[in-house]
Amino acid sequence: MSAIRGWWSRRQPVVSWCRTYCASPVAAPRNPGAPPAFSTASPGPGSKRVGTHNGSFHCDEALGCFMIRLTGKFSGAEIVRTRDPQQLEKLDAVLDAGGVYDPTQERYDHHQKGFSEVFGHAFSTKLSSAGLVYKHYGKEIIAKELQLDVEHENVQCVYLAVYKNFIEAIDAIDNGINQYDTDQPPKYVNNTHLSSRVGSLNLEWVDSDHSSEEENAAFQQAMMLAGGEFLECVRFHARSWLPARSIINKCLTSRGNVDPSGEIIVLDRFCPWKHHLFELEKELKINPPIKYVIYQDERSKNWRVHAVAISPETFESRQPLPQCWRGLMDDELSERSGIPGCLFVHISGFIGVNQTYEGALAMATTALTTPASSSS
């Protein structure tokens, strides 16, 4: 306990809600001469014990240990950090150590020869211990956060989105998989991603105290850092991402009521839409693709016509607003377009503004039938 208190005084405090998941006492040694077991809770009678290796730690096992303690089966489990095979064999679950992947025995290592497990669902990145725990327990964790049944479609949506936007990068970094296929050296150093920040919590070679207590205290902070950002990601997807997806899905379903072409959608409430649009177009097999998105600017109350990009990563539009409108404003734009209330069209043609919904819709429908390069 004294080592933990000393650690709190020297290291930055963590946000308070992390303490809900990570209390901080150190358990007494279970065997004379054995390294002291590291506990993230006060183990009660019959508490589960989850093992991982001691020594230097990485983001995957820190996150994996945090996540597995969110499950019903391992809630409040004691974390035991050791490389002793005999100790590991006695534990209820083992992450990132032991050389075995067998979910029926709660063994989640990825270092052994021949290991090639992936998440599935069209993802091809080899899993780390974090990805393995998430693959088998992620839906349960998501369902608890969303307060839905584990088989609910929204649980599946968030489960896949959190893997894509959070877990997969941790898997890839731990397995040494580059983000891009290139032989060129990076143009800059990035030590700000989560895996790097977790790694920086390891004891430094100049630290005078490299005891098990200090090492375990550092690992606890790594768990809280990785776990805290994981929960933030889950809650973002539950609170913001999922409702936005629902809005875009509804708009796509009702797009025929906006224009017979089916190539224009109107947001009845503004929300982040670009990535949802591309994903849902693919899932719903929408063809022809959406060309324009109309929505009201919440500040000015004017209406915007946004030309959809060719892909989320590009600036080029599928069908930019007509060339003859670009760079024009106000009366000159209205006169050229023949549409009242026009305010602005960007020089690149990716966005236009009108005072009214009717005017914005007229801009979109006219643009659909006007060649983008038209000069009149």
Report on the structure:
The protein has a five-stranded mixed β-sheet with strand order 2-1-3-5-4. Strands 8-9-10-12-11 form a five-stranded mixed β-sheet. The chain is α/β, with parallel strands linked by helices. It has two domains: 49-178 and 193-202 and 210-242, no CATH class; 258-369, no CATH class. The chain is elongated and about 80 Å long. The protein contains eleven helices and twelve strands. The chain starts with a helix and ends in an 8-residue tail after the last helix.
- Helix fraction, binned, reads 25-40%
Strand content: 5-15%
Strand order of the largest sheet: 2-1-3-5-4
- Helix-strand sequence: HHEHEHEEEEEHHHHEHEEHEEH
Mean pLDDT: 88
Brief write-up:
It contains eleven helices and twelve strands. The protein is α/β, with parallel strands linked by helices and 376 residues long.
Which features does this protein show?
MYG1_exonuclease, 376 residues, Metal-dependent protein hydrolase, alpha/beta, 11 helices, 5-stranded mixed β-sheet, 12 strands, disordered N terminus
